[in-house]
Recover the amino acids of this structure.
């Protein structure tokens, strides 16, 4: 009996060795496609070791299942099957790895949605700005390696289904379970990517339909005429951190014109954004939706609908593209009575001044004007004309010394960002000049959708929800009111130290415009005597936690399992300084 068992075991070992020898290229291909991304999670700062191991284990299990299924295919069928698998995994794999080496974090569901809504112009701009021979070589190798593997697969014997019915049925059932059980499927990066894509498409269609239906429902808005401004202007900036404005104490003189106007401005010093990406922030500031009640996006009136019902003429002037990609906040923007899209010109934000001047001069009753800027959006060098290229780190200036050695490319990035802030200062001063010429009660609010981290305390420039810092969410918030309107609204309170989140913007705008309606909450208006401090969140994190994480940051505050800090530094530096040395596209 023992002899028979030994012979059987020997024969089985020989069969396994034969299979591995004949199909080793298939195994290597599957490992490349399925295991590379989850294994690289070892250098991600936002993934616990247990989650990394779980992802690798699930991906390895899927590899075994696919390997078993492919044993029932002829060589030409295997090539087709693996080509389809490659096509499905290639784009998500490139996105996940690009984000990983850019931000040293694994892409989250929210960031996937943001990337899906990145418009064509931003993508072109990113490519023209950051494509280099190293990037081109890296992309080419990532694509070509598995393609070469597929074409080099040799003819091999295959199993017939009718001879191995149980093995085939088991393989099919296991594949179904891997894809159908959500906690398991979420561990497979490209399956999760397409799940998020499908959920996003379905949600967008349902939201757009619900918003259209909501507009047909009655909702009474009362306007206190004696308390309402003739013109209310809302200017939404982009990616501007108040920590890079001299108006807020930055060492470089990046906002001299606003500083000169300081006596006529209300400059709020403790305002944060509810997220660190444009899309979720704009969805929040244009609606009553918040962390506790996301359903208010479709169940309650949005900004333009509210002011339309109050009898205001509503205008949108945008230098941000929103035609080629239907972003999830576009249905909210399109509720404006009049829309001017200047983004196709591809020019810095000064292009909005003529359209704004024409709109301000219209003699047709009360007006709400929303201006959406490109601001300091990546890539910063495209956000200002050459005449505003003032800052150069080669020349000593007031910027404080960096807490770590900054490469020449990093210094250039800081210079370009600060130049964009300087240009924004000129633009806002020019807008205030236009408002000064109005002889009517008027008010303006300016804020940025979110901030930006620009090598402020670590080797990183950009914004990423997975590693949110205080620099990414602390935004400027500036209020201007004409003398005539100030006299009409003596009950408004302007305390510049009030802690506030722009997720409550609609309540503050309603207060400023003198609107009354069911559901209005004065305690959430920044200008109300009844204002009450509320806990602020940045995504899922309390703002205080974000501040603490920023203050206590250490490059090694997450120790990578099985990798010592020095090795981790060598690995991350290798990829950062090679073909992954670029800034992420998207908002």
């Amino acid at each position: 009996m023992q002899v028979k068992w030994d012979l059987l075991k020997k024969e089985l070992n020989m069969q396994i060795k034969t299979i591995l020898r004949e199909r080793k290229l298939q195994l290597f291909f599957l490992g490349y496609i399925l295991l590379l991304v989850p294994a690289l999670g070892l250098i991600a700062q936002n993934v616990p070791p247990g989650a990394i191991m779980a992802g690798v284990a699930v991906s390895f299990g899927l590899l075994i299942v696919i390997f078993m299924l492919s044993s029932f295919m002829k060589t030409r069928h295997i090539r087709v099957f693996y080509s389809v698998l490659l096509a499905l995994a290639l784009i998500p794999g490139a996105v996940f790895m690009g984000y990983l080496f850019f931000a040293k974090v694994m892409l989250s569901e929210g960031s996937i949605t943001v990337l899906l809504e990145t418009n064509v112009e931003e993508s072109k701009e990113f490519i023209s700005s950051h494509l280099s021979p190293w990037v081109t070589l890296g992309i080419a190798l990532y694509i070509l390696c598995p393609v070469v593997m597929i074409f080099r697969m040799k003819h091999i014997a295959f199993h017939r289904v009718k001879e191995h019915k149980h093995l085939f049925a088991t393989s099919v059932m296991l594949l179904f379970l891997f894809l159908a059980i959500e906690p398991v499927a979420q561990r497979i990066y490209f399956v999760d990517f397409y799940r998020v894509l499908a959920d996003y498409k379905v949600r967008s269609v349902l939201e757009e339909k619900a918003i259209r239906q909501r507009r047909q429902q009655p909702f009474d808005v009362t306007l206190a005429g004696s308390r309402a401004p003739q013109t209310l202007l809302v200017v939404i900036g982009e990616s501007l951190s108040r920590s890079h404005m001299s108006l807020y104490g930055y060492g470089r003189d990046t906002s001299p014109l606003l500083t000169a106007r300081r006596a006529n401005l209300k400059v709020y010093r403790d305002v944060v954004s509810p997220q660190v990406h444009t899309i979720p922030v704009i969805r929040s500031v244009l609606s009553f939706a918040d962390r506790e009640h996301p359903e208010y996006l479709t169940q309650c009136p949005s900004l333009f609908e509210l002011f339309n019902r109050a009898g205001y003429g509503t205008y949108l002037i945008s230098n941000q593209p929103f035609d080629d990609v239907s972003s999830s906040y576009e249905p909210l923007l399109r509720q404006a009575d009049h829309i001017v899209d200047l983004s196709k010109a591809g020019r810095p934000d000064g292009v909005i001044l003529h359209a704004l001047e024409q709109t301000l001069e219209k003699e047709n009753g009360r007006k709400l004007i929303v201006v959406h800027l490109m601001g300091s959006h990546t890539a910063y060098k495209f956000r200002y004309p050459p005449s505003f290229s003032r800052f150069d780190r080669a020349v000593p200036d007031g910027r404080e010394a960096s807490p770590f050695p900054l490469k020449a490319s990093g210094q250039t990035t800081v210079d370009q960002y600060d130049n964009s802030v300087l240009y924004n200062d000129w633009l806002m001063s020019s807008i205030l000049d236009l408002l000064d010429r109005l002889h009517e009660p008027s008010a303006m609010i300016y804020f940025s959708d979110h901030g930006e981290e620009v090598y402020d305390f670590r080797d990183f420039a950009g914004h990423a929800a997975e590693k949110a810092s205080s620099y990414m969410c602390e935004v400027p918030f500036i209020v201007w009111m004409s003398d005539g309107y100030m006299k009409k609204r003596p009950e408004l309170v302007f305390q510049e130290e009030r802690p506030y989140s722009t997720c409550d913007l609609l309540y503050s705008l309603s207060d400023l415009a003198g609107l009354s309606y069911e559901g209005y909450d004065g305690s959430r208006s920044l200008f109300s005597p009844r204002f009450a401090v509320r806990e602020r969140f940045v995504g899922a994190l309390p703002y205080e936690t974000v501040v603490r994480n920023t203050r206590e940051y250490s490059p090694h505050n997450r120790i990578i399992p099985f990798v010592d800090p020095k090795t981790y530094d060598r690995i991350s530096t290798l990829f950062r300084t090679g073909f992954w040395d670029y800034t992420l596209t998207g908002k």
